[in-house]
Design goal:
By secondary structure, this protein is of the alpha/beta class. Helix content is about 35%, strand content about 25%. It has an eleven-stranded mixed beta sheet, sandwiched between helices. Strands 18-17-16-19 form a four-stranded mixed beta sheet, covered by helices on one side. The radius of gyration is 23 Å and the shape is globular. The termini are far apart. About 40% of the residues are buried.
Amino acid sequence: MIMEKISRYVFYPLWDIWDKSSKLKVLGEMQKSQWNSLSSIKKSQWNNLKSTLMYAEKFSPYYKNLFEKNNINLDEIKSYKDIEKIPVTTKIDVRNNLNFFISDEYKIDELINAKTGGSTGVSLNLYFDDLCEQNRNSAAMRSDMWAGWKTGAKRAALWGNPPTPKTIKEKIRHHCLDRTIFLDTMSLDDRSMSDFVRQWREEKPKAVFGHAHSIFIFAQYLNKNKEFDLRPEAIVATSMMLLEHERIVIEQVFSCRVTNRYGCEEVGLIASECEQHQGMHLNIEHLYIEFLDDNGKPVPMGEPGKITLTDFNNKGMPLIRYQVGDIGIATDRICECGRGLPLMEHLEGRVADFLLTHSGALVSGISLIERTLTNIPGIEQMQLIQKNINELIINRVKALEYSVETDKRLIEEFTVVFGEEVKYVITDVNSIPQEKSGKYRFSICEIN
């Protein structure tokens, strides 16, 4: 407890001074601005949006050319409706024109480099300036605090390929600031989880962070072994969709509410639940977020739309109306917490997670799996792979309640959705494979 306070009140401020960082300053500003009215936050958002467009026109070769090619005069952009005149930016656009996205104010080797995992079929190299990275960290820290974490408190992280501190600076940061113990999700087995439980009891972390499904697997392990003494004060599930049946198990095992958070490598935090868990607050202080149909037009509130983002933070590599590849549902409901930040009802999944029927209709694979796991006993995990329109591969992990009726009911469930002309191939597997990042994909459509 003493070390936690020293970390919070001494090391965090000193580290910002050492790093010449504005992270804590921005965090303080965001903690205040979240309580402003929606109209006040949107006024600030509009000013940031206009500034971002003007910056991109001046310094981004890609957007300067895009605006000229489409006869876009920024003086005529006077409302959110006018933003629709700007064509969306796709992952393919970024991959094929990477150097043209980089701001003329920066050299590419001066920027922070990151890479997306390519789980949607397109892997991207990304670049950020230092201030962008600081602002993104501030937004993430605020959502951590919504979950119940406090700066300086120890954390347990379930993550693929966890970082290993090597330099003196990294080691100081690890022990004085990050204060995190890791369970490598690339090797989740009884032995690694047993070792992690022992480490947890020694270190006593107050918060859990990690891939939603990895936390679920760990909770299942604890439940099976009747290990119910791990009691965090905060749980943040991120990096992949949190399914409702997983949330229930995690909360029962840890006796702690789960905070669902959504972001991406390209722009950082997009949305997060607060302590009320009534939807996910959209990070409109840092982003302009649109929900669009297939024609690039806004969908009505309450309907699924392609999440399209304009990032106010990253001057090193501006992204305007960038389609991240996810589907979400915006809502005009107001959260009881009193924050002015609007809500997203929930995330529907990635575009690549949607399966196709013979009629051309899209089916949310994640929603289908969640409904199936809830209604049909005997399945622990499941993954759907659609390589062509006439076949659906069902990778299924048996649960203790498995019986001969389980697979029969599975096929009946999918026949209702996809029809009798589809061949259903059920494969008995011991586990669902992970991606290189440690994440899991439960629904994969490979139809072009």
